[in-house]
Write a structure and sequence with these properties.
Number of domains: 2
Shape: globular
Helix content: under 10%
Strand content: over 45%
Distance between the termini: 31 Å
Order of helices and strands: EEEEEEEHEEEEEEEEEEEE
Mean pLDDT: 88
Number of helices: 1
Structural class: mainly beta
CATH architecture of the largest domain: Beta Barrel
Length: 241
């Protein structure tokens, strides 16, 4: 029998738009629900059924960590509050080691704060989407401090076909453009060719459709604008739609 090794929850990571909130989070879950409806019609003795609209959610738990001098700089409470019931789509990516789950048409539906006298202030949020959830393959999540830096290649297991990329990035302003190119190759030390590219004007998350067949190994190449001495933080994954 295969030797399976359980993966600890501490290996998970979560990005909300341009912010990685992993260091402020105590956990998250991915929930998918598909209900069925029953009905009767003339000429049929058997009960008929059809699948209703699926729903997806990512309950998100963490800690109150204060607030920034400027709103929405990536503090847990600020990130949840700013996206609570918003009409603007929120992009959420939950990283589970080599795989990811991304909701790119979601919104915040919950903000609960628990402030016990003897204990830490904790928070619970929930990200929900009616149908915009995609499973993907993790490519990179790291700081890119210099121009033209590649991430460490990851093994996708086999050559396959993917249809999009998701990119989250922060550490630059709305007047600057950061380009993230996902490249693939057939061998880890082989020749990497561009597979799909995302250009972000200002810190944000983006989903770019396209792609197609790809090699077994992938990496991200990040091109930074001039005048960014500290670089940017970028997360990238290939999505299978």
């Amino acid at each position: 029998m295969p030797d399976f090794t359980a993966v600890p929850g501490s290996a998970a990571r979560i990005w909300i738009d341009e912010f990685e909130l992993s260091q402020q989070s105590s956990g998250a879950e991915f929930q998918a629900e598909l209900t069925t409806e029953s009905y009767n019609i003339m000429g049929q003795s058997a009960v008929q059924q059809y699948a209703a609209t699926p729903s997806f959610s990512i309950p998100h738990h963490g800690y109150y960590t204060g607030h920034g001098a400027t709103p929405n700089l990536g503090y847990f409470e600020e990130a949840l509050y700013a996206r609570l019931g918003t009409t603007l789509p929120v992009t959420v990516t939950l990283i589970l080691g080599p795989i990811t789950y991304t909701m790119f048409g979601s919104w915040g539906t919950q903000l609960t704060i628990d402030a016990p006298v003897e204990g830490l202030i904790t928070m619970d949020g929930n990200w929900a989407s009616p149908d915009s959830i995609r499973r993907g393959a993790f490519v990179a999540s790291q700081a890119f401090p210099t121009q033209g830096l590649n991430s460490t290649p990851v093994d996708l297991g086999a050559a396959n076909i993917a249809n999009a990329i998701v990119v989250h990035a922060h550490g630059f302003t709305g007047a600057e453009v950061v380009t993230v190119a996902v490249q693939t190759a057939s061998t880890v030390n082989g020749s990497y060719t561009p597979w799909l590219t995302a250009s972000l004007t200002g810190p944000k998350a983006a989903v770019v459709l396209g792609g197609g067949a790809h090699g077994q190994f992938a990496r991200a190449l990040v091109t930074l604008p001039g005048g960014l001495p500290t670089g940017v933080n970028v997360m990238a994954a290939m999505l299978y739609i």
